[in-house]
Amino acid sequence: MTHPSVFCAGEEGQWRIVDIKQVCGLSLPPADFLKITDIDAREEGKGWLLRGTAGHARYTTRSEADQLALRQDPLGRASARCAALIPIRKSEAWWSLVQDERRSIIEETSQHFRIGMDYLPAVARKLYHSRDLGEPFDFLTWFEFAEESADEFETLLTRLRATEEWRYVEREVDVRLRRADQL
Amino acid sequence: MTHPSVFCAGEEGQWRIVDIKQVCGLSLPPADFLKITDIDAREEGKGWLLRGTAGHARYTTRSEADQLALRQDPLGRASARCAALIPIRKSEAWWSLVQDERRSIIEETSQHFRIGMDYLPAVARKLYHSRDLGEPFDFLTWFEFAEESADEFETLLTRLRATEEWRYVEREVDVRLRRADQL
Fold it and tell me: Taking CA atoms, what residue in B is nearest to A95?
């Protein structure tokens, strides 16, 4: 069975929050640490909590899935001491499109998959789906990379945010983190 | 924002449960009534509770969505005094397929959309997605129809269960209901 993962910002966690940038729409409150867990227990009044389910691929084709499997590294590499959590909500205009229209904007127009491939294996990535859960965001994307890949990661984000797909993004927050054990 | 709907079986509700058939896999415990609500409050120890989110179309093309909009009637018609709640879980083999492979089995091979169209507007239908919520089923489908369309509804189910898509179904329960106010 598939279960939601919980991103719990508060006073403890494996990751230290170093910055929370408001990209568009409402931001998230400041917090010191982020804990990633399967348990939906908020530390009372001490931070925020976002949930998402990793689950199955929604837009990827077989050929793309096979290319990804060859190129991507897993999360949790010892060298990847930097992370970003980017929660995104897309507009009602996006969700009223049907599957083939959304796929066309994601890939044929915006080349989302191709852009991501350009930064593999340096930037490892995992996508969590939140919309069905009634969460304030539709997706949470988690990225991990080494210090020396930080510039590459910025370029990846700049390219994605310039796509037609991003015109449907109405809320985006960019949370930057470091592994807590290095502090 | 999209929120899960809650199907709560217990001692009260708008619908009276008249039968619970085990189609494949584990069944659901007996209960007398079903309440459909937005509130996730289980009546302690008195029945079962299933959640799902109606949300956006996952496989429908624009042409299919337009045909559906022309043909389908809304839920809640006064004449539709019969209902069925059919929770389904598909196998891991299904979920490891990519989007275009799943779409191909649903429509090009199994004609799921075309079969459903044959029974519109008599059988009104709403699909709820449960998988991302960590629920025991992946989908809940809710059907409403008049007494005189009951045979048509059985034919619809027989045709769907004979498709290639249904070979991926590993758990299915068929809950039959009547509007509680007619008893």
Answer: B56
3-state secondary structure of B51: strand
**How many residue pairs bridge chain A and chain B with CB atoms within 8 Å of each other?**
80
Which residues have CB under 8 Å from B162's CB, separation 6+? none
Nearest to A61 among B98, B134, B136 (CB): B98
Going by C-alpha positions, the residue among A10, A34, A38, A25 that lies closest to residue A128 is: A38
Q: How far is CA A180 from CA A12, A141, A176, in A?
A: 9, 20, 12
Amino acid letter, residue B126 = K
Is residue B183 classed exposed, middle or buried when 0-12, 13-18 and 19+ CB atoms within 10 A define those classes? exposed
Q: pLDDT truncated to tens, each residue of chain B (183 aa)?
A: 689 999 999 999 999 999 999 999 999 999 999 999 988 766 666 789 999 999 898 999 999 999 999 999 999 999 999 999 999 999 999 999 999 999 999 988 999 999 999 999 999 999 999 999 999 999 999 999 999 999 999 999 999 999 999 999 999 999 999 999 855
Q: Which of A2, A61, A95 sits opposite B100 (nearest CB)?
A: A61
Strands A15-24 and A33-37 turn out to be: antiparallel
Both tokens of B74, joined, read 């809304």
For residue A98, give the nearest of B65, B96, B132 by CB distance. B65
The total number of residues written for chain B in this structure: 183
Domains and CATH numbers, chain B: 57-182 (3.30.70.3420)
Alpha-carbon distances of B63 from B101, B103, B113, B160, rounded to whole Å: 19, 15, 11, 21
Confirm if B103 and B113 have CB atoms less than 8 A apart: no
Q: Is the ipTM of this complex over 0.90?
A: no
Q: Do A99 and B59 touch (CB under 8 A)?
A: yes
